[in-house]
């Protein structure tokens, strides 16, 4: 009898444990939900180092959520020769729908819609690709929990995110491996792998601050060993829920 | 009394060598085993860059170029097809491209027409998309894409030929890891294996790693053949000339051991082998055999003349130790003269060959001499055996008589030959394009010629415009200069195609203006350039990295050419330089890349050949003057040394041979080898003149005694060098022929011209009236 009770108890524990175990997707959703704000703004400085050369880039980033979709406006500040060039992107949650992107060229006062690829391209010659900067919809990838471990002194989940087939051609990566902090639900480290399962780049996130109630990583370092290249991205003046008007994220606003 | 018997008492050196003979042979056996054990560690490296020292300007420019624009190594796989854009063909090529992308080691990027992006303007926007979005498209759509592809300079004759019959798959590599022996050599075997699985496609493969790998394989295959043939040739010649078992075995074994020891030392030091150094074993066989041959020849002559084994050895050593020591010093000096060049492998060859000749000398004493001491110990007989005369003695007597009879004719013929050689030398062409060295039907050459014919050229001259400031190339003035330079290159006869960032700016300008062809030009303002570049790099723009430096401070123009000769490369460089000097002011333009490397090598060869020859000449002349204790005799002795060099180079010109990298070894080497004959001849000549006081008698005696070994060493040398003709490359074959001409003319100059000059110029003073007569001179 004692044995039966013990077995039932054990069964309950296992069942309870399993019911509480997070899947890879659950973790991705948790990460997606960290930013609870309706909109936000930040300034960014990028220091790109390749070999002995160093470039500094500055930009302003604004974003606003439109339901499940999100719009981002990037205005370039430095170098001076591209000041006021703007990129407006509309990222759709529906994986079937292609994202939209417009570019504003200040010298000619022209706006052009960019369609097709471009996500794979490098962001201002940094180690970040455009797709690394953009918010990624949860279901653009399938997520698998690999293990629970510690990174430094932080408890983390390690998940692997593989693009779903229709998104695979839009991405440089065949797989990303993320170390997600169990407390902040932010990745503290991401490894990017190519189709041959070779490690392409590694990003480490730090400087995590609670800004307006939202955990925010303010320091990102992306390294590409094969190019002997490293980019430090630092965010300043981060602010959330500013009530930015919808039309600031329309293409018509780019020329303003 | 027989003159030879003067020295017949065993001297200290001989006694010592005989006393420790067992120990010597044991040491030789052990060292040989250790050296042989090192041989598997020998590495081969034939890359062009391996030729430059780290401080060399050409190399520095290339290194900087690589740092800025990435590793310029590539492998280009070309597929000969009916129509690249027929749906099944495209799919099949796609499969090959996939395999190559997936399996090729150190790959940074694989590009083919099926994975490139196109940037196109449409009303209100710009479409950045794959040129071929999917390989399953209907044929009609594929044909439309084909029209677009062959009209776009970014793809035409790069990834697809203008006639749509050739597809190209370009493999580019990351900066190789510094691990392992030579990572680029990991690439070709994988590429060949994959291509082997696509036997239904007719492929050609070109590119630096492939070429170097092929050359390495070929060299590894040929080197043992050269050596085997050289050894075989020598053995046959040794047998013909000595007709004795010892006469063949002792010199042959000594020289084989010298090669093993030297190569063991080379492997231990960690030098790599290349097309130059691969010559070393065969070269050593030929050069090293002289010492042992002279020892054996004198020894056998001593035995023939009735000396005991020990006495004959003693006599031999007293007679030849000085000369072979001297020849070793002079030959080593000749090889060490390569240190005057800036070519790394040649410097290494110099050091290795110099080590080799000293090893050969050492082994002559600690191996050949002990070996000769074994056997029945004959007793000195008062009545020496009558020396047998053979065809060689007959020939030598004939030459001696001829020289004494018609000195004016000899001088006249040599003067004529010198004139012809000067003419030949003046028309020798230096060539560093190794493709031209291969037979016309060799697959590698066929592949290069296929690229020349179908894809607009297999080589490229890289021009780098440096502005010296971050963002400098975004300046419209710089862009206009680049455009002008590119336009000039497009009109140049040797250039088939050019590309630069100017093309991309024009393409973006047109795309921003909705594909209106009127906008396929540079914009008006610098800020437009900056904005277009920002969009281009963000919109995929993988090409940008190849044409613009990271900090936008320098840009590159690539000028593609067919496989052109060194002279043509130099002409192209000179034309570019002149154009730049007259028209370009906004940036500093430098040339680099494979063609520039070729041109740099050509310059090094020209300068290196001259410098190392000059150094060898000075060193050897100095040694001759000191040894012969007479400035005039020493300088006359240099005549038969220098003439062979002139004759060899002259013959190269007259025979239409090109002076390539292998040929660079020629002049100092001939000097170093020819000097052996001179040392033996002049040392003996001086000795006999001192003894008999007559130029004619000194000549007769010299010919009678050292004439035979000199004739034999020359014949062995020529036959040994013929080993180099077992090659598919023109270089080693021409080297063998030119060297043979040199060695023959060295001997003729020694036997015929030198005595004439000596009798006319009388560098040893007046002849003495009371002349001692040589005992055996009458024979």
Top keywords for this entry?
heterodimer; A: 256 residues; mainly beta; outer membrane lipoprotein receptor (LolB), chain A; 13-stranded antiparallel beta sheet; 4 helices; globular; B: 779 residues; alpha+beta; Multidrug efflux transporter AcrB transmembrane fold; 4 domains; four-stranded antiparallel beta sheet; 25 helices; disordered N terminus
Please give the structural blueprint.
The complex is a heterodimer of chains A (256) and B (779).
Chain A: H1 2-20, H2 24-32, E1 39-50, E2 53-66, E3 69-78, E4 86-91, E5 100-105, E6 110-116, H3 130-133, E7 141-151, E8 154-163, H4 165-168, E9 175-181, E10 187-193, E11 199-211, E12 214-224, E13 229-240
Antiparallel strand pairs in A: 1-2, 1-13, 2-3, 3-4, 4-5, 5-6, 7-8, 8-9, 9-10, 10-11, 11-12, 12-13
Chain B: H1 12-19, H2 21-38, E1 43-44, H3 57-69, E2 74-80, H4 87-103, E3 107-111, E4 117-122, E5 125-130, H5 139-151, E6 166-173, H6 187-196, E7 202-207, H7 208-242, H8 245-269, E8 272-273, H9 280-304, H10 309-336, H11 344-373, H12 391-405, H13 407-426, E9 429-430, H14 443-454, E10 459-466, H15 476-491, E11 495-499, H16 501-512, H17 526-538, H18 544-547, E12 554-561, H19 566-583, E13 588-592, H20 594-628, H21 631-654, E14 658-659, H22 666-692, H23 695-705, H24 707-721, H25 730-761
Parallel strand pairs in B: 1-8, 9-14
Antiparallel strand pairs in B: 2-6, 2-7, 3-6, 4-5, 10-12, 10-13, 11-12
Helix pairs in contact in B: 1-10, 2-8, 2-11, 4-6, 7-8, 7-9, 7-24, 8-9, 8-11, 9-10, 9-11, 9-24, 10-11, 10-20, 10-22, 12-23, 12-25, 13-21, 13-25, 15-19, 16-17, 19-20, 20-21, 20-22, 21-22, 21-25, 22-23, 22-25, 23-25, 24-25
């Amino acid at each position: 009898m004692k044995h039966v009770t013990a077995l039932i108890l054990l069964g309950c524990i296992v069942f309870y444990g399993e019911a509480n175990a997070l899947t890879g997707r659950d973790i991705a959703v948790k990460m997606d939900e960290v930013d609870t704000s309706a909109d936000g703004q930040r300034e960014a400085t990028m220091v790109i180092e390749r070999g002995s050369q160093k470039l500094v880039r500055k930009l302003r980033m604004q974003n606003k959520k439109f339901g499940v979709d999100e719009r981002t406006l990037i205005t370039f500040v430095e170098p001076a020769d591209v000041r006021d060039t703007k990129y407006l992107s509309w990222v759709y949650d529906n994986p079937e729908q292609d994202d939209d992107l417009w570019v504003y060229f200040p010298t000619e006062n022209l706006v052009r819609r960019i369609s097709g690829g471009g996500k794979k391209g490098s962001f201002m010659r940094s180690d970040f690709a455009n797709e690394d900067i953009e918010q990624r919809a949860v279901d653009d990838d399938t997520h698998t929990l690999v293990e629970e471990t510690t990174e430094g002194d932080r408890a983390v989940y390690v998940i692997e995110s593989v693009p779903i087939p229709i998104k695979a051609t839009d991405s440089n990566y065949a797989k990303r491996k993320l170390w997600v902090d169990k407390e902040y639900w932010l990745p503290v480290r991401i490894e990017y792998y190519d189709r041959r399962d070779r490690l392409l780049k590694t990003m480490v996130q730090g400087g995590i601050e609670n800004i307006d109630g939202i955990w925010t990583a303010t320091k990102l370092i992306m390294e590409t060993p094969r190019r002997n290249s490293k980019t430090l991205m630092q965010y300043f003046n981060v602010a959330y829920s500013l009530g930015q008007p919808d039309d600031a994220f329309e293409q018509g606003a780019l020329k303003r | 009394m027989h003159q030879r018997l003067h020295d017949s008492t065993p001297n200290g050196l001989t006694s010592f060598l005989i006393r420790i003979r067992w120990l010597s042979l044991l040491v030789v056996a052990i060292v040989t085993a250790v050296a042989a054990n090192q041989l598997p560690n020998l590495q081969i490296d034939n890359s062009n860059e391996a030729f430059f020292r780290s401080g060399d300007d050409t190399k520095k420019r290339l290194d900087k170029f690589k740092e800025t624009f990435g590793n310029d190594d590539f492998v280009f796989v070309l597929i000969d097809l009916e129509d690249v854009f027929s749906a099944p063909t495209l799919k099949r090529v796609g499969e090959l491209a996939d395999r190559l992308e997936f399996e090729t080691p150190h790959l940074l990027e694989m590009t083919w027409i099926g994975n490139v992006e196109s940037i196109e303007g449409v009303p209100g926007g710009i479409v950045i998309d794959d040129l071929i979005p999917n390989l399953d498209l209907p044929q009609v759509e594929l044909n439309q894409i084909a029209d677009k592809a062959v009209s776009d300079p970014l793809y035409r004759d790069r990834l697809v030929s203008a006639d749509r019959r050739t597809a190209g798959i370009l493999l580019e590599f990351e900066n190789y890891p510094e691990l392992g022996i030579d990572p680029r050599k990991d690439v070709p075997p994988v590429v060949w294996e994959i291509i082997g699985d696509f036997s239904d496609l007719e492929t050609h493969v070109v590119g630096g790693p492939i070429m170097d790998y092929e050359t390495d394989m070929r060299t590894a295959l040929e080197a043992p053949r050269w050596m085997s043939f050289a050894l075989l040739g020598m053995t046959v010649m040794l047998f013909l000339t000595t007709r004795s078992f010892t006469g063949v075995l002792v010199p042959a074994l000594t020289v084989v051991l010298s090669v093993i020891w030297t190569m063991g030392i080379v492997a231990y030091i960690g030098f790599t082998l290349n097309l130059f150094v691969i010559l070393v074993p065969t070269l050593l066989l030929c050069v090293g055999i002289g010492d042992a041959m002279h020892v054996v020849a004198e020894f056998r002559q001593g035995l023939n003349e009735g000396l005991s084994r020990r006495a004959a050895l003693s006599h031999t050593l007293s007679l030849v130790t000085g000369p072979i020591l001297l020849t070793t010093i002079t030959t080593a000096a000749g090889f060490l003269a390569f240190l005057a060049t800036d070519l790394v492998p040649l410097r290494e060859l110099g050091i290795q060959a110099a080590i080799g000749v000293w090893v050969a000398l050492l082994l002559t004493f600690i191996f050949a001499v002990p070996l000769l001491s074994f056997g029945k110990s004959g007793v000195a007989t008062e009545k020496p055996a009558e020396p047998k005369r053979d065809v060689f003695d007959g020939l030598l007597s004939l030459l001696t008589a001829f020289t004494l009879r018609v000195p004016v004719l000899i001088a006249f013929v040599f003067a004529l030959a010198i004139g012809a050689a000067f003419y030949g030398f003046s028309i020798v062409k230096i060539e560093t394009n190794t493709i031209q060295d291969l037979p016309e039907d060799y697959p590698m050459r066929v592949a290069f010629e296929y690229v020349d014919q179908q894809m607009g050229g297999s080589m490229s001259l890289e021009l780098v415009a440096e502005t010296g400031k971050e963002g400098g190339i975004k300046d419209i003035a710089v862009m206009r200069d680049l455009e002008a330079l590119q336009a000039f290159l497009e009109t140049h006869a040797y250039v088939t195609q050019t590309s630069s960032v100017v093309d991309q700016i024009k393409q973006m300008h047109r795309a921003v203006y909705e594909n209106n062809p009127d906008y396929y030009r540079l914009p008006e303002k610098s800020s437009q350039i900056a904005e277009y570049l920002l969009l281009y790099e963000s919109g995929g723009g993988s090409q940008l990295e190849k044409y613009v430096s990271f900090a936008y401070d320098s840009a590159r123009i690539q000028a593609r050419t067919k496989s052109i000769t060194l002279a043509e490369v130099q002409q192209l460089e000179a034309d570019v330089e002149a154009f730049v000097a007259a028209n370009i002011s906004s940036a500093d333009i430098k040339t680099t890349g494979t063609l520039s490397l070729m041109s740099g090598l050509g310059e090094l060869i020209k300068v290196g050949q001259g410098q190392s020859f000059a150094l060898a000449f000075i060193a050897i002349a100095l040694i001759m003057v000191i040894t012969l204790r007479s400035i005039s005799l020493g300088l006359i002795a240099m005549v038969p040394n220098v003439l062979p060099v002139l004759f060899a180079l002259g013959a190269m010109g007259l025979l239409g041979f090109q002076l390539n990298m292998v040929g660079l070894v020629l002049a100092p080497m001939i000097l170093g080898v020819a000097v052996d004959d001179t040392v033996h001849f002049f040392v003996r000549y001086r000795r006999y003149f001192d003894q008999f006081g007559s130029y004619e008698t000194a000549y007769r005696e010299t010919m009678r005694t050292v004439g035979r070994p000199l004739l034999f060493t020359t014949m062995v040398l020529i036959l040994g060098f013929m080993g180099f003709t077992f090659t598919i490359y023109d270089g080693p074959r021409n080297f063998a022929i030119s060297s043979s001409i040199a060695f023959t003319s060295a001997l003729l100059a020694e036997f015929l011209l030198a005595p004439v000059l000596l009798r006319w110029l009388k560098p040893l003073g007046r002849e003495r009236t009371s002349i001692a007569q040589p005992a055996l001179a009458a024979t």
